[in-house]
Amino acid sequence: MRRVLFCSVLTLCFCLLENGCSKGITRATAATVFFATGNVVFGNAERNDFQPVTSKSKIHAGDTVRTSNGASINLALIPGAFVQLSGNSEIKIQDLRLTKDGNETAGGVLDRRASVRLNRGRIVSLFSQGDKNASEFSVTTGQVTLSPDSDWQMDIKTALDVEPELLNQAAGWQNRRVF
């Protein structure tokens, strides 16, 4: 009887410890709007379902953000990844995720991911690793995907005459050495 009770308690403790120290819980997150000027809308482009951006807007993965002439918006996608969209521009938020470590007492974030696609116009992006946690950020245009492995700031425009310039920048970025 004592042996059965001891084995049951031991099994229960093992199960509680195993569940309390999970590898991580991945959750979708929303971009934070710092400010928007002019006519800026977001929503589902496939259904043509757009609404005006406000400071309380929740912009999620899959949403498209559009600015009209003279408008702009500043967004924080994940901690350390910021974008500014200029007038007559459009981006699609492809991915926004955070992975927490599962240890509720530590509260750490293991992984951060953000990915945007520039469909037209101009985007200025700033990315900073900031700490030892893994962070991934990428900007995709028609032919190029830029995904830095360290801190960076980049001003990207899409136009027919700019694509070759972007290809040259991407090749130079891949060959860059950190000293």
Largest sheet, in brief, is: 12 strands, mixed
User: Secondary-structure element sequence?
Assistant: HEEEEEEEEEEEEH
Percent range of helical residues: 10-25%
Average pLDDT for all residues: 79
Give the uncertain stretches in residue-range form: 175-179
What would your notes on this structure say?
By secondary structure, this protein is of the alpha+beta class. It is built from two helices and twelve strands; from the N terminus they run αββββββββββββα. It has one domain: Jelly Rolls, CATH 2.60.120. It has helices at 2-20, 163-174; strands at residues 25-28, 32-37, 40-44, 49-52, 64-67, 72-78, 81-85, 90-100, 109-127, 134-140, 145-146, 152-158.
Question: Which descriptors apply to this entry?
Answer:
alpha+beta, 12-stranded mixed β-sheet, 45% strand, Jelly Rolls, 179 residues, disordered C terminus, single chain, 17% helix
